[in-house]
């Protein structure tokens, strides 16, 4: 059974990069060495692996990667810290048109 990893790298400019691979060590080494000049991290090395989660199902890994790529940096950092309560708070809609704020 193959293992797939969704990972977060912290770049030298403090931006976060989210990726997925089936070989975490190799992929982090590629990011670190500047293997691909077209990669987001190429001009942002050094990078540091700050989070990864493993999956046995590639579809679940792809789903999770796409999901967290859309998150704010604060929400991604809460995931890195394992602060799931903060993720929930940051996920709440604060828009004035949200149903919680409408007078009924």
Automatic annotation (TrEMBL):
Keywords attached to this entry: Endonuclease, Hydrolase, Nuclease
Pfam families referenced in this protein's UniProt entry, alphabetically: GIY-YIG
GO molecular-function terms, A-Z: endonuclease activity
Domain annotation GIY-YIG: ranges: 2-78
CDD domains: GIY-YIG_UPF0213
Family statement drawn from the similarity comment of this UniProt entry: Belongs to the UPF0213 family.
Record's protein name: Putative endonuclease
């Amino acid at each position: 059974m193959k293992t797939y990893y969704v990972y977060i790298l912290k770049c030298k400019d403090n931006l976060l990069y989210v990726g997925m691979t089936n070989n975490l060590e190799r992929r982090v080494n590629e990011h670190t060495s500047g293997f691909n000049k077209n990669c987001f991290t190429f001009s942002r090395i050094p990078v540091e692996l700050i989070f990864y989660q493993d999956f046995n199902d590639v579809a679940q890994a792809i789903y999770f990667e796409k999901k967290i790529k859309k998150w704010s940096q604060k929400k991604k950092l809460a995931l890195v810290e394992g602060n799931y309560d903060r993720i929930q708070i940051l996920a709440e809609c604060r828009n004035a048109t949200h149903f919680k704020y409408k007078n009924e």
